[in-house]
Amino acid sequence: MVNKSFGEKRRTLLAVLGRPIFFSRSPELYRAAFRHLKIEADYIRVASTSLEEAWQTIIEAGVNGFNLTSPYKEKILPYLDELDERAQAVAAVNTVLRQGNKFRGYNTDVDGFNFALRAAGVCLGHQRFLVLGAGGASRAVLLALQQAGVNSLWVTNRNEIKGQELAQKFGAAFLPPAEIPRKIASFDLVISCLPRTEYLLPYNQLPAHGRLFEATYNHYSWPPVQGDNNHKNKKNSKKNKNNKNNRNNLSLAAQLPQTKKLQSHSDAHESQQLFGLLSRDEQAERQAELEAIISRQKTDSGCLAAFSQKQELALNPAEFCFGLEWLLGQGIANLRLFTGKEISEQDVAGLRKAIYAPRPNRAKIALIGFMGCGKTSLGRLLAARLNCGFIDTDELIEKHTRKPIATIFAEAGEAAFRQLEASLIPDLLKNSRPMVLSLGGGAVKEERVREALRRSCHVVWVWAPFEASYQRTAGSNRPLLALNNSPSAIEKLWEERQSLYAGCCDLLVSNRDGKLDQAARLIHEEINSSF
To answer: Does the pLDDT value for residue 504 go beyond 60?
Structure first.
């Protein structure tokens, strides 16, 4: 169970780390679980440019436990004090618990994969399996299949030496990538543990009885498929470059999830392909197709049999199962570690509903955080990157009242200012225009503000340790410094606010060192990679 020795001053704080990370559905899963189990805890996404940066943030922010996704599952090992047996076996960790001053790593990807197999009704006997990739997720799959006694098991990987070593370790055979087109029809189950931008497989050549399992879920129109020939690839590459330039506009970045065009073809080319954006009309058309297919599937299994719609999508009729069931399975195992509680079948149904719910289509980014964290300066930089408007709510209030914030505090008090703030922000968010907003540090104290933010914005918590925030604001005329004139009183206020920020944020970005350009670029990249 989570040890709260570090964060006992406030609610338990859990997180997920990765790059990118904004796509992650983990917060939806765990927040739904905590509400149902009546557990006082928050779960957030932590954006980072490196694992070193992420580690420093979770240490200083008092994170009690966290999950990891690519590319951090293997890189985390030197940071940990202990590993469970499965983490040692696969040399990869996706869950970490803080126990006092020590960190223990676990691997629940095995649980996630086994759960996804059961949800899909897969029988392991007398079937041939092909695992794509040689990373941490691939090793977890191989361990699960090895423990289940599977004998007909193959591994393929672009780095053939690494793939051969992995196959030998788990008693599997190695299939060279060049052999895939000729052998693919012989496999009953293909498990892809590759990032979404990598291509190894002519998916349309899967047999009708076959199944494709995807470990990833951060793209909606799976699977990626290759172009017809080099001429088309070059043409698409030029088109995609032009489309990429358009992503600076937030109104486009905040539209439906960017999708990859599905084509039918029989030839096989190189082992890796990168894909660009579709036009907005193509996105809407493809999303409508996908939603029509989803509506015809049984939601209790979690498997998207997209390949069965051959005439509609010109794909081979193999069943396709994507990574949300894997996420759900590992989430159930992680909840036992985090809370010590068992999850019932009824609970599982509720969690499944939470992670399958569509991500809200929001056209605004709201920056929240304690005074001195850099929200206003960062907001202006981010708005310039996204080519959209910027509003600082404190500046807007001063313009509206024709009084400085400090004067409003002095004449009417903090409570009156918060009421003014709470009436202005929800009205401001009713505007449908894309924009970046910087909110005052105490704006999230009001529930109606928090609710309006959840409804209308991607909420980014600009985090900085107390010492950095205090040094940046010391000597200024900020009204809260006048009301709380000792560092200990300000630190207490900082501590009280952390749970409010965690409770309504979609993403945490650290501005510990004041590198505003880097923080703006990171938020921009996260938005672009996830929407």
So the answer is: yes
